[in-house]
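One-letter codes give the sequence; each number marks local geometry. A record appears below:


***
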Amino acid sequence: MRNWGILLAAAALAACSGKAPPPGSASARPAPGAPPPEVVSIPKDPWPSTYKAYPGVTTVIRNAVVYDGTGKKFAPGAVRIENGKIAEVGAEVAIPAGATVIDAAGKYVTPGVIDIHSHLGDYPSPAVEALSDGNEATSPSRPEVWAEHSVWPQDAGFSRALAGGVTALHILPGSANLFGGRGTTLKTVYGRSVQDMKFPGAPYSLKMACGENPKRVYGSRNQMPATRMGNIAYARQVWSDAAAYKRKWDDYTRRAKAGTAKPSDAPRRELANDTLMGVLNGEILIQNHCYRADEMTNVIAMAREFGYKVTAFHHAVESYKIADILAKEGICSAMWADWYGFKMESYDGIRENIALVDKAGACAVVHSDDANGIQRLNQEAAKAMAAGRRMGLTITPEHAWTWLSLNPARGLGIADRTGSLEPGKMADVVLWSADPFSVYARPEKVWIDGAVMYDWADPKRRPIADFELAQPGAGDAK
């Protein structure tokens, strides 16, 4: 009893003294009904999209051959665009009063092409040193840099890509570094800032690289990594440090929500680790430059060790060797149709790569990585389809179109909004003059969010960058 009296007296004195109870004590927790405690958090998107869709009109395209992007074909087919969305697709669609009707007999309609790997804006035209901003090659790990902060919105390449039927593209840093920085997805529209071009709500990515590039760049400077084992060791340490950073923030957030930590207790922000923590939290997608099959398996093992997921391997010329693993892991492969042999790690590339990856049930994507190639990705897919057919694979054109639209949309985390002509999705649509797998085909019209952004027959609907104004040939049909 005497001890209880001492304890009660001490509690009364503490209450009268006005001193705060120690953190963690019951009386330090918020009272029921009290306002939630202030919790410091890291902004997920400090540079949000300011893109606004251009106005469009209700439009019906009919009597065309339609590849809907999911593997279906309608011949004849029709598409109705309304309020910036795909409203209906099929053999016939309703034609509302006042709708613009396009008779597309002999022509083809597809979803817009999506390029999952581009450096437009970061390595723009004209290709001069003053505009070369794609590689922050000052450390093997630079996850704190963002590709969008190098994008020059006046790159003439954007209008050329649009003229090739591209309606969205993912801008990545280069591959000099193991961790090259964040990538961003853009609409193929001009804006005063890169934010005016950003695909609303698209997840950020983190560009990673393995293989020859990092070890060549940093090994030549007598620093790590100089070998492939150095690549993996360096990357593992970076991920280990990021995991420790995440634990600090998770612990602080838990305690702050419980009312046992103050805003001043928040860990110091580290921009590089902010990006890496976003990956570990499943908010930022990994886009990994990787050529060789054995290196892809090493990266998959590293991702498993640290609890993140690789979304796509890029330039993956040896994906055919591990296509079953990629299918099981749910990893996309972004590939060229026939680029190979230009360095040792690309030596085992084969023309059947895309078709074999697709046959295994993995996510096959045709990408460009090139300011010229992005203008003819339809032809790249045609080459890949032809190579698969030569080895006896049955590949329909309507299925091959998934390599250009829905699969890259999956790899960018935007397949719920674009990539196919399904009702409710963005009306990102291309009207082709002929079979889009023909070298003679060209986009006649390109719609983005239901607005005609390119019209081969109308010079006023062929965008020109400010930089090109008054240049010889500006506005000529591309």
The longest strand covers residues 73-82. The chain has eleven helices and 16 strands. The mean pLDDT is 93.
